[in-house]
Amino acid sequence: MMTWKTTPVPPGLRGVDANCTISALSASALFSHGYRYAIRYLPRVTAKPSDLTASEVMTLLSAGLGVMAVQHVESAYSWTPTADKGSVYGQVAAREALRCGFVAGCTVWLDLEGVTPKTPAQVVIDYCNDWYDAVASAGFQPGMYVGWHCGLNASDLYSKVRFTRYWSAYNLDADEYPARRGVCMQQHARAASDIPATVDFEFDVNTTQRDALGCLPNMLARA
Fold first, then answer.
1. Where does residue 52 rank: exposed (0-12), middle (13-18), buried (19+ CB within 10 A)?
2. Of 28, 109, 110, 199, which is the most buried if we count CB atoms within 10 A?
3. Beta pairing partners, 82
4. Is 147 helix (H, G, I), strand (E, B) or coil?
């Protein structure tokens, strides 16, 4: 019987994020290509066929990959957060992470991007903090993916929300990172050399690092 644990992702480790189910063959190919973790999607309200399941988690772990989860954003182009949405979406993220077999301390990521321009920063802050509370209360480590039009500036990200783990989008400028802290994981645009020959789905490449305050994300791994 496979035993699972939570472990910090070492600095410099490469992984992928993908919005599709990763088969055992693809997981093995990714591992052979040097990847050591996969970040997969949890539903925001209703599960999609491509969302992460407990079965896929077992497949990824069996191939030697650690696993983290990120929740679908409402829209990558324009949407308005509210505190109520933060609470509801956070509860769903926590419930689905538990259903997939994640254990206490694993990082579950909020995808913050596409916020409607001119949305008051306090509205975004309330959304983030209510999402954080819902996920943290289930025992997980909340993290934030900071993307295009996240609705918060560098100072807000550092001092106004409760998060301590940040993951930057591939197109995020350094002055958009959380002030003083920075990020503990960076997404990169994929190059041809990053793609294993037998993998035919879209994915992004990510690399972990200690942020300026020494923090790393945590992944689910085989004990």
1. buried
2. 109
3. none
4. coil
**Residues β-bridged to residue 40:** 69
Tell the CATH topology of 4-222: TIM Barrel (3.20.20)
Copy the structure tokens of residue 3.
């035993």
Summarize pLDDT for 194-221 with one digit per residue, the tens. 999 999 999 999 999 999 999 999 999 9
- Look over the chain and give the mean of its residue pLDDT values, rounded to a whole number: 97
Grouping H, G, I as helix, E, B as strand and the rest as coil, residue 204 is strand
Rg (the chain; Cα; Å): 16
Instruction: Read off the amino acid at residue 179.
Output: A
- Express each pLDDT in 134-187 by its tens digit: 999 999 999 999 999 999 999 999 999 999 999 999 999 999 999 999 999 999
Q: Is the model's pTM score more than 0.90?
A: yes
Which residue has 């020494």 as its token pair?
214
Let me know if 197 is exposed, middle or buried by CB neighbors in 10 A (0-12, 13-18, 19+): exposed
Quick one: tokens of 161?
Answer: 């929300």
User: 15 has which bridge partners?
Assistant: 206
- Token readout for 45 is 């309200």
Q: How far apart are CA 33 and CA 31, in angstroms?
A: 5
Amino acid at 84: D
